[in-house]
Amino acid sequence: MMKLKNDRFLRALLKQPVDVTPVWMMRQAGRYLPEYRATREKAGDFMSLCKNAELACEVTLQPLERFPLDAAILFSDILTIPDAMGLGLYFETGEGPRFKKVINTMADVNALPILDPEKDLGYVMQAVRTIYKELNGRVPLIGFAGSPWTLATYMVEGGSSKDFRKIKAMAYDTPEIVHALLAKLTQSVISYLNGQILAGAQAIQIFDTWGGNLASNAYLEFSLAYMQQIVNGLIKEHEGRTIPIILFTKNGGQWLEAMANTGATALGLDWTCDLGEARLRVGEKIALQGNMDPSVLYANSQAITKEVQRILASYGKGSGHVFNLGHGITPEVNPDNAAVFINAVHELSARYHS
Ligand code: CP3
């Protein structure tokens, strides 16, 4: 087992005492960093960067060279799974992800393979192994996948969507097709994440970016039920350590109790819910991660520091909080402001831990 030099991220997830509140940022390796843009240029396009273990490792470590972050996250994308299932992922500049093939019918679903991580997504496993080795115990490595519902939205819509017209029509019209797709994705996500754990991922985050767009009951049926199966199916312990699972449903504030009942280790919160209230609701059961509005990073240092202070005070004393943004950092943010944010979390949180 690799000894960790900084394990406060894992400790906070397990609600063990910490010296200061740990912090990382969703999308911490990304276009707001000039060194990321340079490496991406070198790789050619985004998928070539994901498929090159050395370069994926390089960009994973870039934010850690700049900032005292408490975790690293695998550089990859949630859409590697549908790509490996044969849908043909590509990125149109300025338009986000697109698929050459889309899912329209039960026959389309039946034709999808169940993935074998080493065989079908070997480049991701290789990236995890390379990053784990290169980190050399500096901080824990987070592995991730999209939730089945979130992946299904891209596979049925053929890319990003504003209204989810096709998949919602399908969910109400022919729910059996959507359930068959979700069941297949769930199998693939479980083996993909277990592959990442065996390759060196020390915590797992499930990105349910679009679950919060569902009707209250439909969320339980189409998103949470499958995330529950994933929680049940993941390796619980590896090399003597618990593998924490973080469930992040963007706009998921109304379902915190149901999410906490899955047996996950932590819930990721976006900025639309109040952290203190969330702690009162589910904090006995589960750790919380979040939840500063990424737009705060467009403001001045004083405003950023004030917002960090407000969120720390809202959670209050004791362990069980991992500081993060409520969603990914955006490409227009000045990296100096990210530094202000991360340093403020460490400096201002010491008094909440004794
Ligand atoms: O957090 C990290 O630093 C790890 C890397 C990571 C990426 N994507 C890199 C990426 C992670 C965890 C993701 C997850 C992801 N990908 C999600 C869920 C999280 C979320 O943000 O809601 C989703 C929905 C996707 C799908 C996806 N990938 C979209 C919609 C886009 C285009 C968005 C945009 O900003 O252009 C991507 C591309 C992508 N994934 C980029 C990065 C750094 C930008 C690609 C580039 O370099 O141009």
TrEMBL record:
Claim: Isomerase is one of the keywords in the record: no
- On the tree of life, the source organism's domain of life is Bacteria
- EC number(s)? 4.1.1.37
The UniProt entry's GO CC annotations, sorted and at most eight, read:
cytosol
Q: Which chain positions carry the site (Transition state stabilizer)?
A: D77
Q: Identify the enzyme class.
A: lyase
Principal localisation: cytoplasm
Q: Please state where this protein is localized.
A: Cytoplasm
Positions bound to substrate: R27, Q28, A29, G30, R31, D77, Y154, T209, H327
Pathway field of the UniProt record reads:
Porphyrin-containing compound metabolism; protoporphyrin-IX biosynthesis; coproporphyrinogen-III from 5-aminolevulinate: step 4/4
* Gene Ontology molecular functions: uroporphyrinogen decarboxylase activity
The residue ranges of the Uroporphyrinogen decarboxylase (URO-D) domain are 22-31, 142-158
Pfam families with a match to the protein in the record: URO-D
InterPro entries in alphabetical order: UROD/MetE-like_sf, Uroporphyrinogen_deCO2ase_HemE, Uroporphyrinogen_deCOase
| Quaternary structure annotation from Swiss-Prot or TrEMBL | Homodimer.
Please name the PANTHER family in this protein's record: METHYLTETRAHYDROFOLATE:HOMOCYSTEINE METHYLTRANSFERASE RELATED (PTHR21091), UROPORPHYRINOGEN DECARBOXYLASE (PTHR21091:SF169)
Q: Check the record and name the HAMAP family matching this protein.
A: URO_D (MF_00218)
Tell me which NCBIfam families the record gives. hemE
The protein depicted here goes by the name Uroporphyrinogen decarboxylase
> Which species expresses this protein natively?
Entomomonas moraniae
Q: Gene encoding it?
A: hemE
